[in-house]
Design brief:
With about 350 residues, the chain is of the alpha/beta class. The protein has a domain of about 90 residues. The protein contains 14 helices and 10 strands. The chain has a 10-stranded mixed beta sheet with strand order 1-2-3-4-5-6-7-8-9-10. Strand 6, helix 12 and strand 7 form a beta-alpha-beta unit. The longest helix has 24 residues.
Amino acid sequence: MTDLSASTVSSQKSLAEAGWRQSLASAVRSFDVLSEILDLPLHALVGAAHRQQAHSNFPLLVPRSFVARMSRGNPLDPLLLQVMAQSAESLDVNGFVADAVGDLASRTGAGLLQKYHGRALLMVTGNCAVHCRYCFRRHYPYNQEPRRLTELVRALDPVRSDSTITEIILSGGDPLLVSDEKLEGLLMAIGQIPHIKRVRIHSRLPVVLPNRITDRLIGLLKSSRLRTFLVVHANHVNELQHDCRDAIESMVSAGIPVLNQSVLLAGVNDTEVALTSLCERLIDMGVIPYYLHLLDRVSGASHFEVPESKGRDLIAALRRVLPGYAVPRLVREVAGAPSKTAIG
């Protein structure tokens, strides 16, 4: 009976992993497919040769679950705008650079970045489940970073000898794209470093690939001796529905602290109504609105930029209508600064 139960559990684990991997494999990668699903003419998605060039440099990738939350027939849908290549991406705009936040200068070794006191960031993978057009790491040289678990564990060597570091941030790419086995091995290795107290996981997957949030994954995060925080990334209230909402609420119900970071994006969420709706949905789900980032000025994303003055006005508007715990902090990341730079 014991053997049968163990076999059943193993089978359930395999099916859960196969489910999200199949969802990733079936993600939309062509404008033709996206056009058909959204009932939009192809020219509404691909308007010019230089838009095609932008696509070839950073190709379309979006899971069907995320596409299902877009409005059919609407070329200005706020979720669609986040993933659709624009002709403006080909513009060379002063101040917009490949390494907008100084990642390369903060790299202390293979796979390891340290920008702020007490925290180190581990590049777990270069892969993502979605290609957000404003991504500040869209030009990052991921091919120079470790891939195997043994290499990632070795990348933590500088942390082992630095007792001032108490928190590890798992990032990428998206760290939840690695297998449960690899993630478990990594969490065990981090947990064996005595002075590490916390691990923070930054992931877009609960939003764009919700079936990645399995009982096994939750169990892994709960079983670590480390206090685990999950930082998700939703920019618009329409992202937080159906399977996405269920996935995030399952993490909250399990006792895992969940915070949200958003990016202030022109045409997507740069109105009082959009941000109020987003923040209210988050707190209703038990998620803390953490940061609202001014755009990182990465090459190819200039068309998303919202002026700092408008960002200040929007936060002031949120304070007038929301409780303080529901208002995110408006910040900008400045390369070389000792922390996020608070605005206003």
